Amino acid sequence: MARNTRTQDPVREALTADQDKAISLLIEGKTPAEVAKAAGITTGILRDWQDNEPAFIAELNHRRSTLWESHRDSLRAVLGKAVQVLCEDLESEDGRLRQAAAIHILRAAGMYGGDLTPTGHTTPEAVEKQKNQDRILQDLMTF
Predict the structure, then answer these.
(1) What is the pTM of this model?
(2) In CATH, which of 1.10.10, 1.20.1260, 3.40.50, 2.115.10 is domain 5-114?
């Protein structure tokens, strides 16, 4: 069995048992009041850890990131099914269902609710000027 190298991390080892428990409870979605009660601390102490304790903040962020990665993998696994459902809904006789499916698809593609106004310069001179500015900026960024 593979060892969890994160448990050997000095950041996590720097946490107290109460801090470790508080992080676990926050990750589970408990409210600050629930976390404080279960960890035997006050909500003020919890807030202080969240605002001022680098090890607590880093470990909480790490666990949130790990959890998010897991959720993202789960979403990827069912993405094809979700797209298939929307495609089927687009063929429905129910106009409201078709419209809802279309809106979901457009939102997912970033084409709904955003500003789709065409942008860009409309004269050759302005286009050339922008290209020169972009080259200068690129040159500055490579130093």
Answers:
(1) 0.57
(2) 1.10.10
